[in-house]
Amino acid sequence: MRMRPSADPRAPGIYQSFDTVSPPPLSIANTRILGVAGITQKGPMNEPTRLASWDEFLEIYGYDADSYTSDAVHGFFVNGGTDCWVVRIAHTPPDKELPGLEHAACADFTQGDAWKKPALRIRALNEGSWGNTIWFRCAHAPGAQALLTRDLDIGSGEAHVNTTRGFEVGATVRIYDRENTDYVVLTEVNDKLVKWSSETPVNRRHRAAAPTHLEVMTFEIHVAMKERREVFKGLQMHPSSRNYGPRVVSQRSRLVRLDDLHTKSPVPHNIPVATAMTRLAGGRDGLEALTPEDFIGHDFGPGERTGMAALSANEEIALLVVPDAMRFYDREPGPAGEMKAQRLQDELISICERQRDRFAVLDIPMSKDIEWVRRWRRRTDSSYCAYYWPWFKTTGEAGARRTVPPSGYLSGCYARMDLEGVHNAPANQEIEGIDDLALRVTEDHIGQLNAESVNTFRIQRGVRAWGARTASSDPEWRYIPIRRLFIMLRRSLESGFAWVAFEPNHPDTWETVRSRGAEFLASLHTKGMLAGRNAEEAFFVKCDAENNPPEQIDSGFLICDIGVAPTTPAEFIMISLTQVMGNSQ
Q: Which domain holds residue 524?
């Protein structure tokens, strides 16, 4: 509710008028966001990251020619995709188990202090052998300086100086004259006055006339990898400093992280010693022992989800692909590899069927045996997925010719067609970013595969998808646009009617739900998403006392029945030619 002044105030006073806040209109849900789980060169492990461009993917995940994920994401963006979520997969140790040599690990190096005790661990930003190409060095550098203006006695906890510019809390400071030197860590900085804790006392007497200098001691970290250079200056080892090394590097570096090993060496010997350029080592990709379970992951609640389970919990995602499922078959051609690849695809389909708000785009391993391809497809019966075959030939990031599965490229085509409406079949549109098909399929084979709901391709002014069928045996759910139309409706109605929760369950609310639902469906009919010559033939919305009896109301349920007539794509265009013979005259 909201208040507005009365339109007819009389005597001075307060007048109130209440207007009902109109609920928001329903809008078409976004069905263009992709979710990808796969192998990448680098990037956060088991942590979904949203990307808005191919350049962003390269920056975070790099390009890995040994997997299909990189090419799939590139194909998605180049074909019209705008947003995708990526989860990096590798073989990682189960909970409470120490990592072994078969697990993914970060490249690192342990940096010692002046007393040769471990002080810092420099490690790559995330796991993988990519970190073995990172070089670093540690250097010392003098910081701000000041002069003592009053004598300093043994045990003193503060010093008067001529300036405090460049002096900060947490800084290690050297106090020295020609004969004596002390080291303290600042706890307070005021105007021309610095203080330190009793943990770092002054053990010698210093005279202002000596003269006595105060100098901030800092260290630097230089990091390099290929064309990228990072330099972090003015670092400190005390956590109270705003230039605390691990914190500064964590906030600014895109290559490394610093871990404080909490050396027991006293100030200033706890500062890392200067080193020459040193390369990190020990980075492992964790791919040799990779299993389908690493891809599937687990769901232990918010913040504890890994693999495909992390994508399953993401409500934004409307398309799913896992092109690296084919990698298992590539490495183990035969029944063992088939079972692993199919295990991943089955889980992908299960996610879509459980959530009922997303669609899986699936690949079939590259083969020249058409019957084998048909058998692979027959093992699935679901309207929440579609199979595509054969594979594409493309030029990778490094300029090498590659053969890649089509799922990522097709998901981009889905996103492109959704701009015109989810009711449009993602077919007969040129697929960007590819050079050719890995296998030319004859018209007879296209017919056989289409009958089995395997979507193929034709070379006709470029490579085009020549099929839009789901993997369902139910004729009502045969076509991709029909299933995805209902996915869009589910998403739109769920978000558009969320305001109804806890509203009074009475006829006024029913009428609002009915009218808003009818208004939304009428707009879809106008856009051509629903069949029928008029709104009455295209849809119905029923929300009244008949489907909301008293016992239903008492149970806390509000029922709204909605029916729609989806448009069906024209697969076969039959043209009849008749020759009319002229008479003899």
A: 504-585
Q: Is 77 helix (H, G, I), strand (E, B) or coil?
A: helix
Q: Are 427 and 465 in contact (CB under 8 A)?
A: yes
| Domain identity same for 214 and 191 | yes
Non-local CB neighbours of 317 within 8 Å, separated by 6+ positions: 33, 34, 35, 85, 311, 358
Give the other-Cβ count within 10 Å of 400's Cβ. Answer: 9
> Is the pLDDT at 25 greater than 90, yes or no?
no
Q: Do residues 175 and 167 touch, judged by C-beta distance below 8 A?
A: no
Question: 472 and 515 share a domain?
Answer: no
Amino acid 294 reads D
Type of residue found at 555: S
Q: pLDDT-derived band of residue 1, with 50, 70 and 90 as boundaries?
A: very low
202 with 120, same domain: the answer is: yes
Relative to beta strand 84-88, strand 34-38 is parallel
Find the mean pLDDT for residues 99-124.
Answer: 92
**Same-domain check for residues 384 and 254:** no
555: left (phi over 0), alpha (psi -120 to 50) or beta: alpha
Same domain, 427 and 526: no
- Residue 23 included in any domain: no
DSSP 266: P
Asked whether residue 238 is domain-assigned, the answer is yes
Instruction: Tell me, yes or no, whether 402 lies in a domain.
Output: yes
Q: Do 435 and 342 share a structural domain?
A: yes
- Domain end: 482, 512, 528, which one? 482
Q: Name, in order, each residue with C-beta under 8 angstroms of 576's C-beta and a sequence gap of 6 or more.
A: none
The residue with tokens 């799913």 is: 320
Specify the DSSP class assigned to residue 512: H
Contact 258, 249 (CB under 8 A): yes
Q: Which ranges in 356-506 belong to alpha helices (H)?
A: 370-378, 407-418, 443-451, 480-496
Q: Residue 259: which pLDDT band, with cuts at 50, 70 and 90? A: very high
Cβ atoms 141, 231 nearer than 8 A: no
Q: Are residues 273 and 295 in the same domain?
A: no
Q: Pick the last residue of a domain from 420, 451, 482.
A: 482
Encode burial over 541-579: b for 16+ CB neighbours within 10 A, e otherwise: bebeeeebeeeeeeeeebebebebebbebeeeeeeeeee
| Phi and psi at residue 57, to the nearest 5° | -65, -45
Reply yes or no on whether the pLDDT at 18 is more than 80: no
In a domain, 252, yes or no: yes
Closest CA to 193 of 209, 214, 207, 176: 214
pTM: 0.87
The phi, psi pair for 12, rounded to 5°, reads: -55, 135
